[in-house]
Amino acid sequence: MGERMALTDILNKLGGQKGEQGGLAAISKLFDGDGMQGILSKLQASGLDKQVMSWIGHGQNEPVTGDDIKNAVDPQQLSQVAQQSGMSPDDVAAHVAQALPEAVDKATPGGAVPQQGFSMDTLMGMFKK
Q1: pTM of the predicted model, to two decimals?
Q2: Please, which residues have CB within 8 angstroms of residue 53's CB and are 6 or more apart in sequence?
Q3: Tens-digit pLDDT profile for residues 43-85
Q4: Would you tell me how many other CB atoms lie within 10 Å of the CB of residue 115?
Q5: How far is CA 48 from the centre of its chain?
Q6: Labelling 8: which of 19, 92, 110, 128 has CA 20 to 30 A away?
Q7: Phi and psi (nearest 5°) for 10?
């Protein structure tokens, strides 16, 4: 996986037949389905605050690893998503680690989390364009 995949490719892989929407739903499910806010707070709680802030703010997005993702999510959810996407849990985590920085970056164009928060729907809307 040395090759950086485009966000849409990663989401399509994670989503299987459901495509990008399915990929976003899978990521959301990994983090208990409580939207982007929930994803970010889980990541921050697992020690990735600096990375999360870099995705929201302007400038370089700090990378995270598949292991970072595995530490932040429920292992049961991870294996369910892996089964659904036909990938190993390691591959799913690696894909999510690649997708999240860009997804969060796209969802926070103002360099801050919108006041009303933002949901996976906001993000899904961005991919419909």
Answers
A1: 0.85
A2: none
A3: 999 999 999 999 999 889 999 999 999 999 999 999 999 998 8
A4: 7
A5: 13
A6: 110
A7: -65, -45
